[in-house]
Design a protein that fits this description.
Length: 399
């Protein structure tokens, strides 16, 4: 049998090298072919020479091969995953396109609003100039009219018959000037009317431009809201993807050389209120064993006592402890499928007091990437407290 296994590994190793040369898909086909050849060869030569039955070799070889049904299921599962990935990419591209379109519409609205306000500003300046000209024309009319009125009053008083010749000559002179002065008044009056029309026209033009600018502002607001809505799904959601419980080495020694927890809950609101953020995990949800399917949980040094995911199984009878090989320090964390914003957490300890519990410090930490960690809660003093503890998280998650 040892010779058989050696031969099997030898063929698989050769096959593996060949697979790397022709790419992943071709490698899978090549591996299948190699295994079939292996079966035939084992059955016809090595197997008989080692005195092993054909049935046993068939069973050994088949153990390395999926059944047809399993292979088909795997094929379809791969195809499903492939199309789901493409769909996700397509949906994302659609959202990107919608966001870009909304942004372009916003830019157009911004440019139109800027132009509307530039026009309104220019017309406001023209209105101010027209009003100034109108005021000057009104003053001119008043001045000319007063001159005429004064002369008119003078001429209403004719000189007495015994006045001097110069008095009559002055009267004649005033009479001769009267028409010219009257023409000045008429001209000033026309100018005043003309300027009044200019002011009215400028006022209308400005009012229209100001109204357009206001509409442009409203359009910008609408486009801004539309753009934010269209692009919202593309922005990374704020929050933590990892929430961790940690007992550092500085907290050693831990009594009983274990830190044991029955359950850990995280909540969306303070004091254990709101939505429970953690889903119930099973023993298939260990991140190191399930191929990264989220949500899952991980621990620092594997299992000390119990299964680490038991902390999130919502059964207080099941618990997990850090390994006693290192005195009880360690960490475990919950890896969320979507970012979460915890406001509080609840720990169900193994027992009340210090039984299987560090005297401090211990931490609740959050991370977006599993590398950079924020301390969300720090217990640095002795927590000789009850078995169940609820605490609030004071640190805001990253945007
Ligand atoms: Ca549990």
């Amino acid at each position: 049998m040892l010779h058989l296994l050696w031969f099997l590994h030898l063929l698989l190793a050769f096959d593996s090298v060949r697979g790397e040369q022709v790419g992943e898909c071709a490698a899978m086909a090549a591996k299948d072919t190699s295994l079939m050849s292996l079966r035939a060869e084992l059955l016809t030569t090595r197997g008989r020479s080692e005195g092993i039955s054909a049935e046993e070799l068939t069973r050994v070889a088949n153990a390395t091969l999926p059944t047809n049904a399993t292979a088909k299921a795997a094929l379809h599962a791969n195809a499903t995953a492939h199309y789901e990935e493409q769909l996700a990419g397509s949906e994302n591209a659609t959202r990107c396109k919608e966001c870009a379109t909304a942004e372009e519409k916003l830019n157009m609205a911004l440019r139109a609003a800027r132009q509307a306000h530039v026009s309104a500003q220019q017309l406001a300046i023209a209105l101010a100039k027209a009003a100034e000209d109108h005021e000057a024309a009104a003053e001119g009319y008043t001045r000319h009219y007063n001159v005429y009125a004064e002369l008119q009053r003078d001429m209403e008083q004719l000189p007495p018959y015994n006045s001097s010749k110069s008095d009559f000559e002055e009267l004649v002179k005033q009479a001769q000037e009267l028409y010219a002065i009257a023409q000045n008044v008429q001209s000033a009056e026309q100018q005043q009317e003309h300027n009044r029309t200019l002011v009215e026209n400028a006022q209308s033009a400005y009012d229209e431009a100001a109204s357009s600018a206001q509409l442009a502002d409203q359009l910008v607001e609408g486009r801004q809201a539309a753009k934010e809505q269209a692009c919202a799904s593309l922005a990374p959601a704020p929050g933590y993807r990892f929430l961790r419980f940690e007992v550092p080495e500085s907290s050693l020694p831990v009594k009983h050389r274990h830190t044991c927890i029955r359950e850990l809950y995280f909540y969306s609101e303070a004091d254990g209120n709101g939505e429970l953020l953690t889903e119930s995990l099973t023993r298939d949800d260990d991140c190191e064993k399930n191929g990264g399917k989220l949500p899952c949980a991980s621990a620092s040094l594997g299992n000390g006592e119990g299964e680490m995911v038991d902390i999130f199984d919502r059964k207080e009878s099941n618990y997990w402890c850090t390994t006693n090989k290192n005195g009880g320090w360690g960490w475990f964390h919950y890896h969320f499928a979507e970012p979460v914003v915890p406001k509080s957490f609840k720990i169900v300890k193994y027992k009340a007091g210090y039984d299987h519990w560090p005297r401090g410090p211990w931490y609740i930490k959050g991370s977006s990437d599993g590398e950079q960690w924020d301390i969300l809660y720090s217990e640095r003093t002795d927590m000789k407290g009850p078995k169940i503890v609820t605490k609030n998280v004071a640190v805001a998650p990253p945007a």
